[in-house]
């Protein structure tokens, strides 16, 4: 029996599990169905790509992708990269036996929202799914009544189009990088600590190292600054965190 909290979160939510191991795939499907989610499964990366790109039909909208990396034909990293390249914002939770820091960083860099290392407990998987869906809903609600274009000097962020430009030239940002820029442009000159940025961008349920903030800031600087080693836009405030402008 699901709790009132999980029922509220899972209502009408459709999850896509992309996993080639039948035993793992069925175990995840049964656990998530028991929590009240609608669950679809794909065995290969090609099959998942076709399903994800069918979302132009709103009746087939996917709310969260649970993605393995080691897939036949098309691996999870390349699938994630293609999804984000086509500006599909569906949240992605990577589940993988690849546990090195470089693997986790790569997964997040290509657009995943979270990374869970196998083996893991089903309760943790469910908790992470809930957290990602909750953040997705909150972020959607926050943007409903806000200005659609945010600008600072020669940088503009177009909210309806999910894109950022500098001197009218488009800057290719990953989802988390985009969210950080949106927050910065909403609050120029404000100083943000790492913990505050984690809470605002990754959510209060995020379990991970605060250094991920530094990694994402470095990536953004490399894309928007004329000289990333001497930034004009995102400045480090020693002992406190970061500020924009």
Radius of gyration: 18 Å
Number of helices: 9
Count every beta strand, where a strand is a DSSP E run of 2 or more residues: 12
Describe the largest sheet: 5 strands, parallel
Could you tell me the CATH topology label of the largest domain. Answer: Rossmann fold
Distance between the first and last residues' Cα:
50 Å
Strand order of the largest sheet: 2-1-3-4-5
Mean pLDDT: 88
Structural class: alpha/beta
Helix coverage percent of residues? 40-55%
Please state the overall shape, judged from the principal axes of the Cα atoms. Answer: globular
Strand content: 15-25%
CATH superfamily of the largest domain: Response regulator
CATH architecture of the largest domain: 3-Layer(aba) Sandwich
Can you tell me the number of structural domains?
2
pLDDT < 50 runs, ≥5 residues = 1-10
The CATH class of the largest domain is Alpha Beta
What are the secondary-structure elements, in order, as H or E? HEHEHEHEHEHEEEEHEHHEE
Annotate the secondary structure layout.
Elements (H helix, E strand, L loop, with lengths): L3 H7 L3 E5 L3 H13 L3 E5 L2 H8 L11 E4 L8 H10 L6 E5 L4 H9 L4 E4 L4 H22 L5 E4 L2 E4 L4 E4 L2 E3 L3 H12 L4 E2 L1 H9 L8 H14 L9 E4 L3 E4 L1
Parallel strand pairs: 1-2, 1-3, 3-4, 4-5
Antiparallel strand pairs: 6-7, 7-8, 8-9, 10-12, 11-12
Helix pairs in contact: 3-4, 7-8, 7-9
């Amino acid at each position: 029996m699901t709790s009132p909290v999980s029922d509220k979160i899972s209502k009408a939510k459709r999850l896509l599990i992309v996993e080639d191991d039948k035993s793992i795939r069925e175990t995840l499907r049964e656990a998530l169905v028991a929590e009240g989610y609608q669950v679809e499964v794909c065995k290969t990366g090609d099959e998942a790509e076709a399903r994800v790109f069918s979302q132009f039909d709103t009746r087939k909208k996917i709310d969260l992708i649970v993605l393995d990396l080691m897939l036949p034909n098309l691996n999870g990293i390349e699938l994630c990269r293609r999804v984000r390249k086509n500006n599909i914002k569906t949240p992605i939770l990577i589940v993988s036996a690849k546990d090195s820091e470089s693997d986790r960083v790569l997964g997040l860099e290509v657009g995943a929202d979270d990374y869970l290392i196998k083996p893991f407990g089903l309760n943790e998987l469910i908790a992470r799914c809930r957290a990602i869906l909750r953040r997705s809903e909150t972020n959607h609600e926050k943007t409903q009544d806000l200005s659609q274009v945010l600008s600072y000097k020669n940088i503009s962020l177009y909210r309806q189009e999910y894109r950022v430009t500098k001197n009218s030239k488009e800057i290719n940002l990953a989802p988390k990088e985009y969210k950080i820029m949106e927050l910065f442009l909403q609050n120029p000159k404000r100083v943000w600590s790492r913990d505050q940025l984690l809470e605002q961008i990754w959510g209060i349920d995020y379990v991970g190292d605060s250094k991920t903030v530094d990694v994402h800031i470095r990536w953004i600087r490399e894309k928007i600054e004329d000289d990333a080693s001497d930034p004009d836009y995102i400045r480090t405030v020693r002992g406190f965190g970061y500020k924009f402008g």
